[in-house]
Amino acid sequence: MDIFSILLNLFTPSVFLVVFAGVLVGIVVGAIPGLNGAIGISLLLPLTFTMEPQIGLLLLGGIYMGGMYGGSITAILINVPGDVVAAPVAMEGYPLTKQGRAKEALYYSIFSSMFGGFIGVLILILFTPPLAKLALQFGPAEMFFVSLSGLIIVGALSGSFLKAAFAVLLGLFISTVGVDMITGSERFTFDSISLRSGISVVPVVLGLFCFAEMFLNIGKKPSEQVQYRDQKISRMTVVKDILSQRFLVWKSGLIGTLVGLLPGVGTTLAVFMSYGDAKRTSRRDVPFEQGNPDGIIAAESANNATVGSSMVPLLALGVPGSPTSAIIAGALVIHGIVLGPSLFVNRPDVAFTFLYGMLLTVVAMTIIGAVGIKYFSYILKIKMEYIVPTVLVFALFGAYSLRNSLFDVFIAIVLGIVGAIFKKIHVPVAPIIIGVVLGPLIETNLARAMRIAGARNMPLWEYLLATPLSKGLVALVVIMLLVVIRMRHKEKVAAKEVKNA
Amino acid sequence: MNAKLSFLLSAPFLLTAGIAQAQDFPTKNIQIIVPYSAGGGGDTVARIVADRLGEELGQQINVVNREGAGGEIGIDEIARSDADGYTLGVFGYPDNFVLEHTRDTSFTFDSLDYLAAFDDMPMGVFASPNSQHSTLEELVSYGQENPAEMIIGESGALGLLHALAFAERSDMQITPIRYSGGGELMNALLGNHIDLASTSSMSHDPIVDSNGTPIGFAAEERMEMFPDVPTFKEQGLDLVMGVSRVLVAPEGLPDDVREALVTALNEISTDEAMIANFENAKIPYRYLDDSAVNKMLEQSNSVLMPVIENNLDKINGN
User: Fold this and answer.
1) Are B223 and B260 contained in the same domain?
2) Which end is more exposed in chain B, N or C (fewer Cβ atoms within 10 Å of the end residue's Cβ)?
3) A264 and B205 in contact by Cβ < 8 A?
4) Which of A334, A463, A470 to mutate to test the interface with B (most CBs of B within 10 A)?
5) Contact, A310 vs A317, CB < 8 A?
6) Are residues B89 and B53 part of one domain?
7) Is A406 part of the contact surface with chain B (CB cutoff 8 Å)?
8) Range of B294's domain?
9) Between the CA atoms of A61, A63, A68 and A70, what dihedral angle is there, to the nearest 10 degrees?
10) Which of B241, B269, B301 marks a domain boundary?
11) Is B315 contained in some domain?
12) Closest Cβ–Cβ partner in A139, A178, A340 for B210
């Protein structure tokens, strides 16, 4: 299929309409705490059944793209990340808002999302077949090491090491509740049917970030509230600054793309990995978690880059790489489109229109974001006494809507109280999330590796180190460990110097 | 126009006055609970049926996903709902039956009223792209010589049961490994991390596209959709096991409501547009009305029960 006919397919009013509508819906559901792109997509899924397949797909793709960005808006403005993937953005963006630089933070977020989105989609267009092969190389051993490297990132976050270690262990513990994936035995379920299905990430994030933040806001005096300031900042200054951070945005986009390829690990890990890496390499004088724009650039470009790459295994092999792409696969199936290598032969019109159309979703996201920022930041003009109940209502709704479960609401509220206490005593909450996300991955993949090694009559370590890829990943884990230890050491020395001075 | 308007306005009152009891139902939206997340096969069936059934009954039908605990949470909720016809459920039988006999569930097989079945999707065994075995015979002789060495991936309640039954009936030991969903399982198979996969016929195309080999389907006869894939039966292995998406209501529906639902379901069962949607989604359409579905389920239960009993320790992870 030549490029001209693809363009002809793309530049129609209906394509533009669905792309913009999809992105807008995505940004809105992304910004609302507890709702995310996956929920937006499952809501609008029935609508696509009556559309041309490529149009329906672009609607869903637009929501996916917009949803990845939307979470950062509320994260920056009111310290409530709309979704897990926006958690690191809150850590850097909200301090900027407190300094009256909300608009600047929002510009960093949208333009980093734009770069990340383009990187992910372009790689999807250019390198789908080799990357799909790469994704298949990741077996239990490789997944185990990748997840392990994710845990090490916790060490790179700021604050007391002991408190961070406690938080990550708590997260790992939370992830063990429920029916064990591999053996089917029940753990910490106390004969409750709700506990049997485990504690999912969304209510945990809502509780620790959203409810906790709102609980802490209750009782704050108006003078303590962040004031809206009409700060003058030009878009070009921010874009130039992003590009002047040498490789940061490209590197983060690449991390997002590569980690986003891996089924099940995906976006959360990608975001925290590139955030941790930005912290290591940042050359700005501003410390992290006090408003360093590099953290926003890294996290936002990484999460939008995963949109394209999580569709690589889906399009090339018919294997969905993330929950969102699983729903998109379901939509395709209804249209009778078989995913996998045959897609590009049997329905090139659908495949290529969708691929190139995803570039349009990035454009639409950038336009809506860049124009909308002026209006988004008006949220700061609203008094806290209106924001708190509104956010709480949305968060309750979001916690419920994930699995239509009151139990999840209960979990979110309990963890909200826990999170508020933790914030008061300076226990970081991000490591808890990392623990909850990575716990099951580490555990199930190690258990699978043990079973396979047992069946093949080889020692576990021999199976774990059987491929060049897994050897490389072990090296990565060791290097990361050393880097984190050195970072910690440097920080200690620096802190001492400050004290002595 | 005035006459029309007054008729329209009075219509609801006429109906509630009880002129014809059966036409009372439905007077409001109906919900169909699906005990899985959006996007899978069971969800797809529910959405295709909900669309057409809603038109037939003249009410909106909403599909609600209540996933969790391998379907237990959603099925439990269907069973505990009011039996008034406004809450229905669609799921893949025998998920409920397997759950009931392997866990301490609060529902039993008889907590539900089975109104129809829509498809018949056999389970199958697929070999990885690097596998040396392309027929059942080769595979079984290798498996018997090398006990427990071959690894079979599976997901879902039926995936494990089918894997265990497959090993038992072919008289060999294989090592089952659990995956959380069809996508993860396919990734492991196509990446040659496992030797075999126990999954439904729906995975046929993506696996074959990436050079995996279908060893056989656990069906009575060859499938129309995949005429080249042999059944286990014709290869000398007596194993028939599959998923059938059923539409259920909580037990105890009022007779008139049940009648209205069954009539509407029979009416839409021959709808060509709906059947085309099933075919598009690669779901083998097979409609069974309320009496046929109960006969099928009864027979299937009696086949499954011994398999579950023989493997209870393996299912519960010992």
Assistant:
1) no
2) N
3) no
4) A334
5) no
6) yes
7) no
8) 28-121+243-310
9) 150
10) B241
11) no
12) A340
Does residue B279 share a domain with residue B172?
no
Question: Which chain B residues have a beta carbon less than 8 Å from that of A454?
Answer: 175
Contact A179 B209 (CB under 8 A): no
Question: In this predicted complex, what is the ipTM?
Answer: 0.84
**Which of B49, B87, B187 is the best substitution to test chain A (most A C-beta atoms within 10 A)?**
B187
Q: Is residue B142 part of a domain?
A: yes
Angle between helices A323-334 and B41-57 (to 10 degrees): 50
Residue matched to tokens 């039996």: B83
Looking at the complex, does the CB of residue A185 fall below 8 Å from at least one CB of chain B?
Answer: yes
Q: Within this chain, do residues B140 and B203 fall inside the same structural domain, yes or no? A: yes
Which of B67, B180, B191 is nearest residue A136 as measured by Cβ atoms?
B191
In a domain, B17, yes or no: no
Contacts with A339 from chain B: Cβ below 8 Å: 206
**Is residue B133 domain-shared with residue B229, that is, in the same domain?**
yes
Listed residue (B89, B60, B121) closest to B281, CA to CA: B121
Same domain, B260 and B305: yes
Which residue of chain B has the CA closest to A327? B39
Site from A42, A52, A144, A317 to mutate, B interface, most B CB atoms within 10 angstroms: A317
Q: Do B72 and A197 touch (CB under 8 A)?
A: yes
pLDDT tens track of chain A, all 501 residues? 677 777 887 888 889 999 999 999 999 998 888 777 877 887 787 778 778 888 888 999 999 999 999 999 999 999 988 778 888 999 999 999 999 899 999 999 999 999 999 999 999 999 988 888 888 888 999 999 988 988 888 877 777 889 999 999 999 999 999 888 777 778 998 888 788 878 988 889 889 989 999 999 887 777 777 777 777 888 888 899 888 887 899 999 999 999 888 876 678 889 998 998 898 888 888 888 889 999 999 999 999 999 999 888 888 877 776 777 777 877 777 677 777 777 777 788 888 888 899 999 999 999 999 999 988 888 888 888 888 999 999 889 888 877 778 999 999 999 999 999 999 999 988 899 889 988 988 999 999 999 999 999 999 999 999 999 999 999 999 998 998 888 888 878 887 887 787
**Structural domains counted in chain B:** 2
User: Tokens representing B316?
Assistant: 């519960």
Asked if residue B270 and residue B183 are part of one domain, the reply reads no
The answer to whether residues B162 and B181 belong to one domain is: yes
The answer to whether position B14 is within a domain reads no
Separation of alpha carbons A3 and B174, rounded Å:
50
